[in-house]
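Incident log entry.

Two folding requests arrived from the same account within the same minute. Monitoring flagged them as a possible duplicate submission, but the sequences differ. Recording both here for audit purposes.

Request one:
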Amino acid sequence: MNARNLSIGLLVVAALATSCKSSTEKDAAAKATIEKTLDPGVSVSVKDGVATISGSFTDEATREKTLKDIKATAGIKSIDDQSTLMQAPEIPSAEAVSIHADHQLNSDLKTILSAYPSVQATVNEGIVTLTGSIERNSLSPLMQAVNAAHPKKVENKLQIK
């Protein structure tokens, strides 16, 4: 009877040891399978059949498809979704963009160009065309000042000295 109890005990211990090992192996296999399909910036960890997802998805549709695929992965019992969605850059509304009328641009450019005697500007339907010549170190401040006048577009045809 003692030999039989000992054999049963050893079988139980062996079964427990094997099941723990296979759980770890199942988790590793599931993780490897999932990682092959993840988008950059998204990661997964798997423990005891629970897949924990973190990182950022570009959109909700991609996130939902990924979660569906993970649920269908062998060895996954549940998902702990800690992921987020990337914020789309905010596009200014038409009201937020201010483009000055030609007469306002001409007035502003007259003041700006008084500091740059070798530069001329013409305005046509909100488009400022710069001609003439300018020193390289003066170009950036000039362009900033012209853009601050709110033209639709600046065409730089300046010759740089």
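Request two (distinct sequence, not a duplicate):
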Amino acid sequence: MSELIILGYEDRAVADRAFAEVQRLNKDHVVELSGLAVVSVDEDGKTHVDTPARTDGIAMSATAGALWGMVFGILILTPGIGVVGAAVGGLIGKLQQMGVDSKFREKVRELLRPGSAAVVILASSVTEDRFAAAMASFGGEVLKTSLSEQGERELAEQLAGPEDAA
């Protein structure tokens, strides 16, 4: 089981500090990350997704960072996403099959008002009490849902797309 955890904050500066703390907790094995991003909304309402592929401390490939960045973008931007197609529709369907329903996505979107930010975490394991204690000083709002291993694998396959016949 993986946990999808969204930590919502009133501003980007607090989210950046929380993001750094999550990276530290990953190094200390309090949380084992499969994906991590900071999502912020500027004053004009434009959404920005920054993944750890651009930072130090997490052993994720640029491809994995981009893929999870896409998942986070779809979680947050749908239905306002500008690109609509079969791949995006399939991904949204997969997220719904995995229990990431429209109500959860709506709660995530409500967290992200202009000027706010969120840390989006996909964790394969979390030591709940240590994680909560470490993150408590940042305040914010917490949203959480679980993803099965099978669901996460299917999501990764959906993101990768069909294999090319060589």
